[in-house]
Amino acid sequence: WDATASQMIAIINRVRADKVTTLRAEAEHYDFLIVGAGFAGSVMAERLAADAGLRVLVVDRRPHIAGNAYDCLDEAGVMIHQYGPHIFHTNSEEIFTYLSRFTEWRPYEHRVLGHVDDKLVPIPINRTTLNELYDAGLGSEEEAAAFLAARAMPVASVETSEDVVIGAVGRELYEKFFRGYTRKQWGLDPSELDKSVTARVPTRTNTDDRYFTDVFQAMPAEGYTVMFSRLLAHPNITVMLDTDFRKLGSQVTYDRMVYTGPIDEFYEHRFGKLPYRSLRFEHETVNTERHQSVATVNYPGEDVLFTRITEYKHLTGQDHPKTSITREYPCAEGDPYYPIPRPANAELYKRYQALADAEQSVTFVGRLATYRYYNMDQVVGQALASYRRLKREMAEVTLS
Ligand code: FAD
Ligand code: UDP
To answer: How far apart are CA 71 and CA 79, in angstroms?
Structure first.
């Protein structure tokens, strides 16, 4: 944390003053309209402006850039993530190097504890978790593997999020760590969700208590919003906030569009609504320097309605006499945050995808536009790949 609060506000205000435009009376023409200023839209904008030299208008209906990765100072001056904790991790050197042009990094490895049996134990389940829960005295990887093997249940074909976990650790640990959390988070039983959901969380026989094991793990040194302000700083990029692209009317004309919002909304729910899961974030500033010993504590029990509590100062390294936390309450209604991975939804998405594939001048990029449970780095990778494809297509059109 090397930006003071006032520096940070100055940077964000400068971006607002320089970049954020209001509608003018006369029509403006752009090569590209980009809907959404999150990772997908901002990376596409940066590439189209800086690499292809095109004029780009980015619109977002929210009052800020950075999409769900938006961070800001709360009233007490503590940096928080408005849409829940965002921890950057990737194995891709290309993605890390690309983003490093817009930010410096603060090395950070995420750690999570689970509130289970009135104890706080490491998640993902590792040897320490087993020893602390069962007083098992497991001294080696082999012993931990044997302990788990004795509990794991044979699953003929691993299809669901329940299968993955009971096949690895058995029913008891599944119920302690996964069943309640998943039911709260998704409003569905793990047996109704694709295996890919709980497979995000591994089981370990060693004592590695990091949540992720990626090669690159770090937080943008001055926060995500400042990083986004640099992504969008190119003179060929104009940003309009508080603007739904449907309301632009004839004041803006453009040749092509990149759309990063929900795909079913783009097609006015022609085939019905794609299910998304939402969250209500309860942000709180606490009058103490530290609230909990690690950044995130998960609460898998169904006795509380929230899934986890995150304390941001662990992520940001900020020095402040107070600290701010967020509780996440999953809900069905509200902003769409998570596509829900299950076969019926994949089928419905395919029908929208067929419409999207047939579009000549619209490119769909991002977590909501491609209905994929993607992390930030995956969205950046998808945007860089989409840009390369678009560039080739545009070159072919110019040649023909
Ligand atoms: P978004 O960030 O959603 O951006 C889309 C933008 O489009 C939005 O700002 C929206 O306002 C705008 N928009 C939509 N429709 C319109 C319209 N009609 N007109 C104008 N604007 C429109 N990833 C990680 O790698 N690590 C994490 O720790 C992590 N934690 C997460 C925690 C939570 C609670 C959530 C919800 C997600 C988390 N993610 C994390 C995932 C990460 O948020 C996404 O991968 C990433 O932000 C997706 O970027 P995007 O550009 O596709 O979408
Ligand atoms: N999960 C769980 N218990 C935990 C952590 C995760 O059951 O303590 C399951 C749950 O279904 C969750 C999924 O694993 O939605 C993926 O977890 P992750 O932490 O990757 O979720 P995200 O950060 O994307 O919300």
So the answer is: 7
